[in-house]
Every structure is written in C-alpha cells, then in structure tokens.
Amino acid sequence: MTDVDGPLADFGVDAARAYIATVRWNFAKTMPDWPHEYTVKDWQPELSFAFEAFCRLIKAEGFVAPWPPASARPIYRNHYLVIDGWKYWAMGTNGDLGPVEDLTVINRADSYGAVPVMAFLGACRSWSPLAHVPCVWSNAVPSRSRRGPEWHRTF
Question: What pLDDT, in 10s, does the model give residues 109-121?
Fold first, then answer.
C-alpha cells in the first residue's frame, strides 16, 4: 500500500515511504552533536493515523538499541527502523515506551549505508568514529533486543 490517506490496517514500508515523503522534516538545531531531523504529529493532524501507523511499524519491525550509544547508562532504549538509508525512531515523553497514541515525534538520522555495523554499536554514521567502516550485511542489522541478539531486516 502506498497511499497514506487510505486504510492503515496494512501499513507497511511502502506506506511509510509515502508518509515520509509527505511530511515536513526539520533539522534538530538543539542537538548539533547528534545530527538528526524530526517531524511532529501535531504539524499535520490530518495525518495522525498515518503517524501512529508508522510508529507501530517502527516498533514491530525495528530493532532496539540504547541511546546514547555505547553509554554505561543509556537514557533510552528505543526501537529503530532503517528505510532507504535513514534510521527512524519515535518518541514521546518517555522515549518510545507507552502507547503509540502518546508518541509525538518521529526522528530520523542518515545511516549512510553503514547501518548494520553502526546499529550493532547503537550508533549511526554521524555519531561514530567508525563511519568509514563499510556495510558488510546487505539486508540484516544485528541488534540486542530484550530477547537477546537477533537479526533485523533493513528496507
């Protein structure tokens, strides 16, 4: 499905791509050391169902990683989903915990093709000195979820 205005029961990666292309993305100026962009649910209330469906997709298909990466005491353990070279994650007042309806922001950071290696470390190209490490897996991302080490698809 590619139309974000249609029924969202089958909201998948194609619908996520359509949503991504529809909404406005702003650079997070308050966090220049962690470069990323964000979109806010309230900016386009008519797309709130698509926003929530995308958040559900991130939780269902994504991998869990700590933030900040490589921290002894991470602030968050968010779900991340990689689509077309971008790493997406949703947040509310408690990170991505709680119901999807309480999430207010979707963030994204450029993953630059090194997502498998960087995601394993909980980082992406802009956040790691290992940015030069080439991608060694084409369609899987190693991560440590609550259930242990697993492999997750990238789209």
Answer: 987 633 333 344 4
DSSP-derived letter for residue 139 is S
Provide CB contacts within 8 A for 54, sequence distance 6+.
Answer: 11, 15, 16, 19, 88, 90, 106
Domain residue limits at 53: 13-112
Q: Residue 2 falls within a domain, yes or no?
A: no
Q: Is residue 62 part of a domain?
A: yes
Do the Cβ atoms of 90 and 103 come closer than 8 Å?
A: yes
Over the stretch 95-154, which tens digit does the pLDDT of each residue have? 788 899 999 999 999 876 333 333 444 444 444 444 443 333 333 444 433 333 344 455
CB 151 within 8 A of CB 141: yes
Residue 127 lies in a domain: no
**Hey, how many other C-beta atoms are within 10 angstroms of the C-beta on 119?**
24
The domain total for the chain is 1
